[in-house]
Amino acid sequence: MKRIKLVISDCHLGSGPTLADGGINPLEDFRKDAKFVEFLEYYTTGEYSDAKMELVINGDFFDLLQVRTHTKNAYEIFESVAVHKIKRILKGHPLIIDALKKFIDKGHSVKYIWGNHDAGIWWPEVRREIHEAISTKIEFYLEPYEFDGVRIEHGHQYEIIHHFDTDNMFLEAKGRVVLNYPFGSFFVAGFLVPLKERRSYVSQVIPFSKYIRWGLIFDFWFTLIQGIKAVLFFIKMRFVFHPYRFARFTKTLKIVYQLMNKPKLRSLAQSILQESGAKILIMGHNHEAAHRHYRDGTQYINTGTWTDVTSFDPASLGRLSRPTYAYIEHIQDNQLPKVSLKVWKGKHHSWEVFEP
């Protein structure tokens, strides 16, 4: 019997593609529900009908940061608000929820590793909502998932702007318990989400530094004004008191340094492999699909994203739609599996729904 693991990351499911009035939801990044359904159907039928399949969701599947709530306060990070958000996401993508149910009902398994956009799964009630909507058999991982020389983790913990203090994930403020978000989460919820209502693509641009240069030439005033606002937001969140957080000056300096010198996961991969003892490292987070082989036989794979991105890199200039995933085939127990990075093409159709 074939034993296969499929690893995906960074789908960023929001509250659904349309608003209550029928308009397009600018905060929804995922519009490939039908393709995802085909993906799970393909790997549970035909030549894979007798295979033992495992779907590993490596973070940022449910995007709890980009979903609007009944409150205008982007910093409301209580459990009740996180539950409200996950309910809206589950309701907004019925095809995917049904496909995951069928996948598990066929005897296959699902592992869910947390990312910076879905850190809300640390709340027990959020996990309960997902279990009730899909299946109690979904296993949540709050640590990297390791097996047979393979290590899978989202990757956000290597960027200080997105790094969570997992020893102190919850704080008590004003008599209420809140999730201890890093600055990056506040930036997404408080600055980037309102900006997406004007430029919906802004969170799906790679590399962002080249986009800023483009904006200063072709969208000068918008880029300049938003740049100033971003600096003011940073100062406000790092130096002005906020009831749900506090800032350390030394950490602020580290954040500023990393903003100017953004760490590259592919550059960190070898040291992570060496420290962990793993032979294959699979990550996501930065939306940049990659597969690298090193001289010592180790490998680094980044599963990219299932959302469309706008690339300002000359090697891949333009809008990219590449639903990438890692395909892991177990050869024999206690032996290193065979791993490859693939792009899901889906079935042939005469037409498909326009993705704005």
How is the secondary structure organized here?
Layout: E1 3-8, H1 33-42, E2 52-58, H2 79-92, H3 94-105, E3 109-113, H4 124-133, E4 139-141, E5 145-147, E6 150-152, E7 170-173, E8 176-179, H5 183-196, E9 205-206, H6 208-218, H7 220-239, H8 249-260, H9 265-276, E10 280-283, E11 290-293, E12 299-302, E13 309-311, E14 318-320, E15 324-329, E16 338-343
Parallel strand pairs: 1-2, 2-3, 3-4, 6-10, 9-13, 10-12
Antiparallel strand pairs: 1-15, 5-6, 7-8, 11-12, 13-14, 15-16
Helix pairs in contact: 1-3, 2-4, 5-7, 6-7
Model description:
- The chain has helices at 33-42, 79-92, 94-105, 124-133, 183-196, 208-218, 220-239, 249-260, 265-276, and strands spanning 3-8, 52-58, 109-113, 139-141, 145-147, 150-152, 170-173, 176-179, 205-206, 280-283, 290-293, 299-302, 309-311, 318-320, 324-329, 338-343.
- It has a single domain, classed as Metallo-dependent phosphatases (Purple Acid Phosphatase, chain A, domain 2, 4-Layer Sandwich), CATH 3.60.21.10.
- The termini are far apart.
- It has a six-stranded mixed sheet with strand order 4-3-2-1-15-16, with helices on one face.
- The radius of gyration is 20 Å and the shape is globular.
- Helices cover 32% and strands 19% of the residues.
